[in-house]
Amino acid sequence: MKKQMKTIGTTLSIILATTSLLAACSKEEASSTPKATSSSAPAVQAAKYPIASAGTISSWEEINPNITSIVPNLGESAFGKQLEKETGVKVKYTHPADGQKKEQFNLLIASNNLTDVIEYDWNKEYPGGPEKAIADKMIIPLNELIDKFAPNLKKLLQQDKELDKMLKTDSGKYYVFPMIRPENGLVFRGPILRKDWLDELSLPVPTTIDEWYTVLKAFKEKKGATAPFTAQYSTGSELNIQDAFIGAFKTANRYYIDDQGKVKYGPIDPQFKEVLTLFRKWYAEGLIDKDFALNTDSKSLDNKMLSNASGSTVGLLSVIGRWMDTAKKKEPNYHLVAAPYPTLKKGERAFIGQRDFKYNPLASKAVTTAAKDPELAVKWLDYAYSEKGATLFNFGIEGESFNLVSGVPTWSDKITKDPKLNLQQMVSQYTKPNGPFLGDSRKNFNTYPEQNDAMKIWAETDAVKHVMPTFITPTVEESKEIAKLNTAISSYKEEMFIKFVMGKEPIDKFDEYVKRIQEMGSDKVLKIYQDAFDRYNKR
Fold it and tell me: Of 63, 151, 453, 510, which has the maximum CB count within 10 A?
């Protein structure tokens, strides 16, 4: 998931002032003092950067894999060194091993040997959520610290009430410095097809379920694809297709919000039986990868889309460019294109698809109770929401990683023309692709116009109405109940999904399957989520 950027100087402030492109950013320097959140709030003590006689803080956070082949630690990167120079704060970074983030976070918590700040999904991944983390004395509420020492974030919260609501618990506690996506950074995954195959077969880009069926049959019968449609399978979770095909039936393979604002569990909706019937038919006819449940890493997806075994998938925006770069070396006509999230009827708008929220809990930082100087940690974190800080986080260093071209930050030749390293690897040395900062809508990793088109095509859904926010906050007791019930429900649901699709269980057993999930407590989970969603809407 990559962030995007806003403008430097006045342009940055103006663009970010609209809620559609996030929230407002201060037009002033980081040392300016905006109005207090309320008349009773204390005046903000804005930091002047670099902070004189600043000490050292420690940060536990994931490191972008693109940079690890160059330097092992963020502090050794050009970005890390420049951040220290601009803020005056030395940072000791600790990074979990690749693929072991959750396990090492659990060990960190269990050891109670916390760093000053921790970048993690405190809402979803900490048992009981942020309220429990605060009650457990793992992290601290940030209300007073933001009021006093974080003028840049505070200004954003004042000017964007939607963002403000996202960052609180139901009791009104701020608990993280957020990763904030720009509007054009919310949609980045969707259906992808081999356009060169479509052209060769004189077929249009499919938009409906029936058109997809025609395309997949042609890929199998006329192009020899052994897995016409493939996708990555998230281990222990689901076929990662972001509800493509499923949404055509006005449901989802997850909890979602219906048109009346009610939380529903898609896999037990009556119409989900139609989804399973469709997938069962396609699987039986060899149109869906017969090994879909084994595609648990990106390498298997790469291999199938690059070897002509597959002609379509649901994937990230970035793979369009990566696959075309790789394939064109041997197959010059290799061409990928995005397709809309499919519907049942021509011209319908897709019910749901991939769409994130401007607040991304996955890469946001909390200040822990172990912080020796919480004030310093907050001032350091707040720099990322200032004009100069946002520029560093999004673009890096002017004159090295980017230049201003007609006032627009543009990657330098040093970044785009390195003979050994690709764009992602070069950019990762100078910026922070994920983390708590203000994203800029002009940050762009796309190398093909098809990628720019894909962002627009995949955005044409009603996902904004139907995706359930990941940052609603059940109470501590509710969270315990959800954890207990959902683990069993999700496991059983996915076991049966695979069996239904592969034909190991007849679709006629769907009603028994629904009854079993209800007996496992799905109604209790739905009530908890509905109550939490209602409380969120009242914040």
Answer: 151
